[in-house]
Design a protein that fits this description.
By secondary structure, the chain is α/β, with parallel strands linked by helices. Helices cover 42% and strands 20% of the residues. It has 2 domains: 243 residues, TIM Barrel (Alpha-Beta Barrel); 102 residues, Sulfite Reductase Hemoprotein, domain 1.
Length: 362
């Protein structure tokens, strides 16, 4: 079933379009000290390798803001400056980034927001309004008693109102919470009240394992309803894992086709080869592939071909080896000791062909 996406305005962060009919982009945020330029650039390049399309860095002081210029000059994806409390850091960062993220709960009054808007307008860069359930304005907490979806939406609309009064509309929104239900409710509410593009995220989601599951549940509900224009999976882990998880969520919903989609059976007592080892090795060795390909690893030589009929390539394993198939047709037999090497070589060749096809279509 094709998901009908919500119609939103379209903005551009660097060279990446967000909103409208643009593909849902995958973002991440560095965990390095931004003031350490080499370490930050190194981490961003690793993110680029797995397909990260936009990256955000924390700007904690003037030294971090000064580091943005050399960082920007050495990376190939749009750079966002994440600002809290000190609006002057946004002014300092604006000349060297592709977007400014501010939190209406701690950035200050309209006079300070006006200065940030002027700096962004002068340089033609958008602003992300990042509302967080953990840092709402004091008057909203007093009004609602505790962080609610309604309070988060009111905070977002208040910030949007300030920007619109200043004639600024190059804006995207996020309304994040660590509680999945609260987060989903807030995004549903705001999607009915504005057409600004939405950045989805379940903040402070947790570890790579539990956080990915929590995020997949929350984002899956929203994306399945057509809500969301760009995403970040927030994990207490290497940010590379955030990007991988983000693409997996989009692939599962058929909203993006990026990299390898592994089809692997859950296994049963019929398994006669070490499928777990093979799948793990393939996932590691094929992580650099960006062309959309379906790779099937199945544990049954009898039913495996039928189960993997939709795959581009795969192995149906059995005792001492398996059957290699391409697009549902058997093309040969492979020893168990050779399965990984054969599949890696075949997939890499397929990926090159797929990339040529894409270039020729362009």
């Amino acid at each position: 079933m094709k998901i009908e996406r919500r119609k939103t305005r379209r903005i551009t962060v660097g060279g990446v379009a967000i909103g409208g009919d643009a593909p849902i982009s995958v973002q991440s945020m560095t965990t390095t000290d931004t003031r350490d330029v080499d370490a930050t650039v190194d981490q961003i390049r690793k993110l680029e390798q797995v397909g990260c399309e936009v990256v955000r860095v924390a700007v904690v002081d003037e030294a971090a803001a000064e580091a943005l210029k050399p960082i920007k000059s050495r990376i190939g994806i749009p750079l966002i400056a994440d600002i809290h409390y000190n609006y002057r850091l946004a002014l300092q960062a604006a000349p060297f980034v592709d977007c400014i993220r501010i939190n209406p709960g701690n950035i200050g009054g309209k006079d300070r927001v006006a200065l940030v808007v002027a700096a962004c307008r002068d340089r033609g860069i958008p602003i992300r309004i990042g509302v967080n359930a953990g840092s709402l304005e004091e008057d909203l907490l007093k009004k609602y008693g505790y962080p609610t979806a309604e309070a988060m939406v009111e905070s977002a609309l208040r910030a949007i109102g300030m920007l619109e009064e200043l004639g600024f509309y190059e804006t995207k929104l996020s309304l994040k919470a660590s509680h999945v239900g609260l987060c989903v409710e807030a995004y549903r509410l705001i999607s009915k009240k504005t057409d600004y593009p939405l950045h989805l995220g379940i903040t402070e989601a947790g570890t790579a394992f539990s956080g990915s599951i929590k995020t997949a549940v929350g984002m899956g509900l929203l994306l399945g309803e057509g809500i969301g224009d760009t995403i970040r999976v927030s994990l207490a882990a290497d940010p590379v894992e955030e990007v991988k998880a983000g693409f997996e969520i989009l692939k599962a919903l058929e909203l993006r086709h990026h990299g390898i989609n592994f089809i692997a059976c859950p296994t049963c007592g019929r398994l006669e080869f070490d499928m777990f080892k093979l799948v793990g090795e393939l996932e590691r060795r094929l992580s650099h592939i960006k062309a959309p390909l379906n790779v099937s690893i199945l544990g049954c030589a009898v039913n495996g071909i039928g189960e993997g009929m939709e795959a581009d390539i795969g192995i149906a394993g059995g005792k001492e080896g398996g059957l290699l198939f391409k697009r549902g047709k058997i093309v040969g037999k492979v020893k168990e000791s050779e399965m990984a090497d054969v599949l890696v070589a075949e997939v890499e060749a397929m990926a090159k062909e797929r990339e040529k096809e894409v270039r020729s279509e362009e």
